[in-house]
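Hey all, sorry for the wall of text incoming. These are the three entities for the joint prediction.
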Amino acid sequence: MTTSRAINKIENLIPQRPPIVMVDEVLAVEGDVCTCRLTIRQDNFFMEPDGMIAEPGVIEHIAQSASAFAGLRAVEAGATEPPVGYIGEVKNFHLVRRPRAGEELTTMITMGPEVQGVTIISGTTCVSGEVIAETQMKIFVRED
Amino acid sequence: MTREEIIEKVADTLSEEFEVEKDVITPDAVIYDTLELDSLSLVDLVAVVQYTFKVKIPNTDLPNVKTFNDLYDYIESHQ
Amino acid sequence: MRVRRGYCRDPNEDFCSRGLAMLLENKFFRITDRKLDNDMRGVFHVQIISDCEVYKGHFPGDPVCPGVCNMETIKECASLMVGRQLRYESIRQCRLTALATPVVCPEVDVTVSLTEKDGTLQIQGQIADGEQTYMTLKGVVK
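and here's what came out:
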């Protein structure tokens, strides 16, 4: 998995801002597949008293990773602002375990077909090679 | 795939994916209504056809695929 | 799998979640009323807290409820209903059918039902107000 160009700073790729930025960096892009990274910090918006983040936080991480991928493609196509994408549907989400503070999530996003602004994506999130969650999702980009 | 095989496969996969009875999938029936599609599930139709028949229906062609007959024709001519 | 009852005997007891530290309750949403049929089915009338910090970043100058926060809200209402912390093990389908924001829908009804089936606890949730349905969800919790 290689990428020939400098991957943009995350703020250029997604519209979300603190306290709910749930992807740190796009690591690599190859065709319809993109790999992203997030370190789970103690101040994560979804952090629970037991030191792990709530499972919807993992879904948001996957959604924002897909959004960063779409943002990168838009920026490369000359867009000045990252597109604002919403989760339209989550399908077949499976959680193996919730990630702990300090762990680094690596997520692989596969971009599927797009019809009238709705794109199917699938995402698999790992911690040091162990799958902790996976899902399919539809991201809806509002053309405004 | 012969046309008959396409018709059979379309009935099998779409009835399962969209949870409708096979017998509602008839040549002249309108796909959008029969499968009760909406803006969110329309993309599933494209995904299922692409996955099952390896035929990609670009957004530009989608409006021409109204009935199941149109779908059989499209798959037959693009496989 | 028996649903392990929390200590909350009367499902309509006003505050049966004394010990349950919910992540988003009273931060993202606030429960103002609840009508429970039993501890497996109920409707929670909920306020969306418009000055929740999440709106600083989702999105600056354009507050939109994150879909995942609404998913968490459904699960937390279910947890309060059975009196113990539930978590999503899987979500078969969750559809966001209309854009929810603190302006568009400051108050919503969260309908939750739990059923035990083949040894798992299945959850069905819906968020709606008089005008719109914003979310429907089908999943498995444990």
